[in-house]
Amino acid sequence: MGPAPFLAERYALEPPESAQGPLALERLPRDEAERLGALFAGIDPWARYAYPASRLAAYFARKEPGAPRFGLFAGPEIAGVVGLRLEWLKGPYLQFLGVLPGFQRRGFGAAVLAWLEREARTGEERNLWVLASDINAGAIRLYERHGFARVASLDDLACEGHAEVMLRKRL
User: Fold this and answer.
1) Residue 112 and residue 136 in contact, taking contact as beta carbons nearer than 8 Å
2) Per-residue pLDDT band at 154 (split at 50, 70, 90)
3) Residue 49 contacts residue 133 (beta carbons within 8 Å)
């Protein structure tokens, strides 16, 4: 096994041309959790599933070994949140990738996926994993464009009448 990935407090990402400045991941500041929970609760798929802001905020604020949370920063502004579950089926599981509306469609998700793959390869991981709600077609397209393949559909997992699509990228 190579060097332990995902342990740094800050990562500079390769910014897309649309970033107009630096793009970075930093350990999520605890004092931002409540505000971000409220913002993401108003965005699909969390809004469609009526996912409570308090539960999102608690997830963002929780510190757990093997499950880092990062703020996605475009310059000084928080543009999104990234949450991982490490050592999950021979590779990391991207548990949460949310980009706030004002920062969407600017290549930030692609920059996060490139970083995730780079870090996983550094640690000699074999897979990358993610789940996306079937109502979130844009997220599924993003993952598939970046080499993820559908491996399972989990009906009624997060919401009755909808499926969570499990995707895997072999490294």
Assistant:
1) no
2) confident
3) yes
